[in-house]
Amino acid sequence: MQLFTRSYASSLPQKLRWPAICRRLMLLAVECQFQDCGRQLLQFSGLQTLHIQGHHQVYDCLNFSLPVEIGQLQTLRSLTLLNLPIDFPEWIQDLPNLRYLTVRGTDLTTIPNWIHQLKHLHTLRIENCALQSLPETLRQMHYLRELGLCDTRLTDLQPEQFPSQLQRLDLSGTGSYQLSDLDRLQRTLTGTKVLYSL
Fold it and tell me: Distance between CA 122 and CA 159 in Å, rounded?
């Protein structure tokens, strides 16, 4: 079962009679008080996929935040956060079964060191943001197979930063990379398909 709603979060329970059977939820954040919907989200106890996209009117909200209760959705396997005025949410580390994480069009500049605690993460996409560096713990993410870093401000592409078992590394977009750095990256990560544009 899937639910997509554009309405304010307080109306979530009325949108679905049995929220516990919902597996995929897509929300459009249209108000600055979006964090107030946390208790309602906990009713989606079997949720596997959560997609939250920010409406243009929330991007200038100085006090915008996401509900910390999302970190209690233990069945969550896929999380997508798009166009939201946020940094990297701390509660993500409380999602042990997360396999797919996309954070795009946000205010973040760094990825926290605790990212390696997401031991089952298969795909990580941090894109269209001012990301300037990668955490030292990234190379410890032994289950990570796909890493998307499109349209970021990364300039350091030392191969030692990346997990050796990566299958796909996407550096497309407006990156400021030297061709020699990209060539070295591809030569070193022999099992990784490196995508880029200059």
Answer: 19
Q: Which H or E run contains 41? A: helix 38-41
Tokens of 71: 């970190």
- List 76's β-bridge partners, or say none: none
Q: Report the C-alpha gap between 70 and 159 in whole angstroms.
A: 34
> Which tokens is 59 given?
């991007």
CB 106 within 8 A of CB 81: yes
- Would you say 194 and 169 are in contact if contact means Cβ atoms under 8 Å apart? yes
Query: Does residue 111 contact residue 126 with C-beta atoms inside 8 Å?
Result: yes
Amino acid at 83: N
Per residue of the chain (198 residues), give pLDDT as tens: 334 443 333 455 555 678 888 899 999 999 888 999 899 899 999 999 999 999 998 988 888 999 999 999 999 999 999 999 999 999 999 999 999 999 999 989 999 999 999 999 999 999 999 999 999 999 999 999 999 999 999 888 899 999 989 999 999 987 778 888 889 999 999 999 999 886
In whole angstroms, what is the distance from residue 43 CA to residue 49 CA? 14
Q: What is the pTM of this model?
A: 0.90
Please give the full DSSP string across 29-94, using - where no structure is assigned. Answer: E-STTGGGGHHHHTT-TT--EEEEEE-GGGTT-TT----GGGGG-TT--EEEEES-S----GGGGG
Residue 102 three-state SS:
strand
The total number of residues written for the chain in this structure: 198
Q: Which of 144, 185, 177, 186 minimizes the C-alpha distance to 163?
A: 144
